[in-house]
Amino acid sequence: MNLAHLLVRAARTAGTRPALFLGSTPLSDYPALARRAATLAGSLQRLGLQRGARVGLFMTNHPSVIELLFGCWWAGLAVVPINPKLHPREAHYIVSHSGVSLLFVTGDIGDALANAGLPLPDVREIVDVDRAAYRALLEGSPLAEPVHRASDDLAWLFYTSGTTGHPKGVMLTHRNLLLMTLCYFADVDPVDPRDAILYAAPMSHGAGLYCLPHVAAAARHVVPESRGFDAAEILTLARGLRDVSMFAAPTMVRRLVEHAAKQGEEGEGLKTVVYGGGPMYVEDIQRALEVMGPRFAQIYGQGESPMTITALSRAHLCDTGHPRYLERIGSVGVAQSAVEVRVADADGRNLAPGETGEVIVRGDTVMAGYWRDEAATAGTIRGGWLFTGDVGSLDEDGFLTLRDRSKDVIISGGSNIYPREVEEVLLHHPAVAEVSVVGQRDPEWGEIVIAFVVARDGATVDPQSLDELCREHIARFKRPKQYRIVDALPKNHYGKVLKTELRARLAGEQLSN
């Protein structure tokens, strides 16, 4: 089982349909894309890379990412995509820890890594995809067929965001990613060959994984000329290319929706926006549906079960007549087809519908383990179940609602307080753009609730009005003791709010007092 066979199949069936675009400009059809991948595979073998060797991709979004992914798999290698927003020292750790033999870069990133002066003794060569050395790899003899790989062989080594300590390398196999591909068709969105996938989020992460179902369907792949997220560019490309889908974090969805609303647009040409990677609040998805219509679907996954734990379909998001509609659109949907999902107590025992506990997952999408870290693997996969560290509850119909990460739950006066519930209330305030709720140690209560609030542009937030809003909607013990009005919330490279930094800020203040 080698994922490269998806490209082989597409090249045989797609004829001369275009495969790859930079902006609105077509670059290659499927037969040409397959030839380039096969030629890269031949060149990688001639460089002496043995089956199973790791190849790093430290690149901004670039058309060559797709041919590199499939070229590496074609040669029997594993890929290590690295977020281009990482500091060179962070990238250096990943390259060194994973044992990368060859590293592909885009110029700006490669220069920063080279200038950092950090040793990379295992890396034979660093290849800039925009320079002659890369073009030379595309001029050799192609490898006739993909190298055979077992289904449990490593395909993609994904490093977690590492909000505390060093990131861990999640080992994703050919089986994991093939099942993810099939789940996309079954649970997220059907794909037609006329469709296009737009890479506005980093291809080193979930957006890049979604190239697989779109290659399997012989659909189009579009890298924006900006190489990233630009709301105006996305809407323009969608109007011209038509039938465009994309993966986006909730923060990106909010920006896209607000830009469309200001321009009086509704997303013409956008087929599906799949959102995930962070909490999408009820008010935000209602606004998105109001402005842009039924173009949305949600997935919940982790690097350890990529994009494949639950899904909330377009149909669920549009079923406004359901008596629990608001609860459902605040959930992350139902278990995807290839997994079992449970909510369990600390000992792994099932909890009844409505009870809150840790979300655990079992299925062929779950990682093989953490690279070179047996202890972390044993602590995360127990009895065949992936313990996600997320806290949630299942309703009687199987819809999963996430409360928070287990480490984010606030225990005040012996009562559990789930920050997301408080955040949902505060986001109803018309002057609030973003909010993050964390706990601060307190000698009397154990912890107290602190809300960090970002105002909308041009607006002023009054803490008293926030408190009145909470008083109307949630129990007294859940109300924040303080409202901190801030210019911005700290976020990691994927746009997730770093609650660890907010808690550290509060702890530092206590130490200095």
* Assembly annotation: single chain
Distance between the termini: 60 Å
Task: Work out the helicity level.
Answer: 25-40%
Which whole number gives the mean pLDDT? 93
Number of helices: 18
| C-alpha Rg (nearest Å) | 23 Å
Number of strands: 26
- Unreliable segments of 5+ consecutive residues: none
Query: What is the percentage of strand-forming residues?
Result: 25-35%
Q: What coarse outline follows from CA principal-axis ratios?
A: globular
Major β-sheet, in short? Answer: 9 strands, mixed
Query: Order of strands across the biggest sheet?
Result: 2-1-10-9-11-12-13-14-15
- The secondary-structure class comes to alpha/beta
Task: Supply the key terms.
single chain, 513 residues, alpha/beta, nine-stranded mixed sheet, five-stranded antiparallel sheet, 18 helices
Would you give an account of this structure?
The chain is α/β, with parallel strands linked by helices. Helices cover 34% and strands 27% of the residues. The protein has 18 helices and 26 strands. The chain has a 9-stranded mixed β-sheet. Strand 11 (244-248), helix 11 and strand 12 form a beta-alpha-beta unit. Helix 2 packs across helix 3 (64-74). The longest helix has 17 residues, at 30-46. It is globular, with a radius of gyration of 23 Å. It starts with a helix and ends with a helix. The mean pLDDT is 93.
